[in-house]
Design goal:
Blueprint: H1 2-21, E1 46-54, E2 63-74, E3 79-88, E4 91-102, E5 107-114, E6 121-128, E7 131-140, E8 143-152, E9 158-166, E10 174-183
């Protein structure tokens, strides 16, 4: 119990010191609740059929697969969650994306985790006209590379998505995955 009080006292002292260093008038509560930017994803909410093709390297042939996506607002509309289920490379494939808008950085944040690679990827992105573009620097099997996801041709009934990779720090890119989403 004594440790709890010591820890609480330390937290209060640090918070007090931080508040003293903060210029007056800057300590305001940030806007609360879902950012208005989340409404730009409204057309993506629902159930979708997915026709996908993928490849690991540009010289490899495309491998086709099918899947489905369920997309919903979560946390009172503060984020969107997509759950993908299908197949890839002849094996069951499932993954989950969470996406939200960060008011502080003015960037979109996207996470992805799936049953094949079993690691979480984190992307930051923005709208470029009518396209959503998010990117990340990743490491797989000791190799570092860049990834870029683009969502485009968005309507209430369909949209397209592609994942591009760069092995030379963004000098050249190749498309590693492409998908067409059709609303069910």
């Amino acid at each position: 119990m004594k440790k709890v009080f010591v820890l609480l006292a330390m937290v209060l002292m640090i918070g007090s010191a931080w508040a003293e260093d903060m210029p007056q008038g800057e300590m305001q509560m940030p806007e609360m609740g879902p950012p208005k930017e989340m409404m730009s994803l409204e057309s993506m909410v629902g159930k979708w059929s997915v026709d996908m093709k993928s490849r690991q390297m540009p010289e490899q042939p495309w491998e086709e697969s099918k899947g489905s996506v369920e997309c919903e607002y979560i946390l009172g509309g503060s984020a969107v969650r997509q759950y993908y289920s299908g197949d890839m490379m002849g094996a069951p494939f499932s993954g989950e994306t969470t996406m939200c808008y960060n008011r502080q950085t003015k960037l979109w944040q996207v996470t992805w985790i799936d049953n094949m690679f079993a690691q979480m990827s984190y992307y930051e992105g923005h709208w470029d006209g009518d396209k959503f573009v998010a990117s990340n620097r990743e490491v797989w099997m000791g190799v570092e590379y860049l990834t870029r996801m683009t969502t485009f041709n968005i309507t209430d009934k369909s949209y397209e998505w592609k994942m591009e990779m760069s092995m030379d720090d963004g000098k050249t890119w190749f498309s590693s995955m492409e998908a067409v989403y059709t609303k069910q």
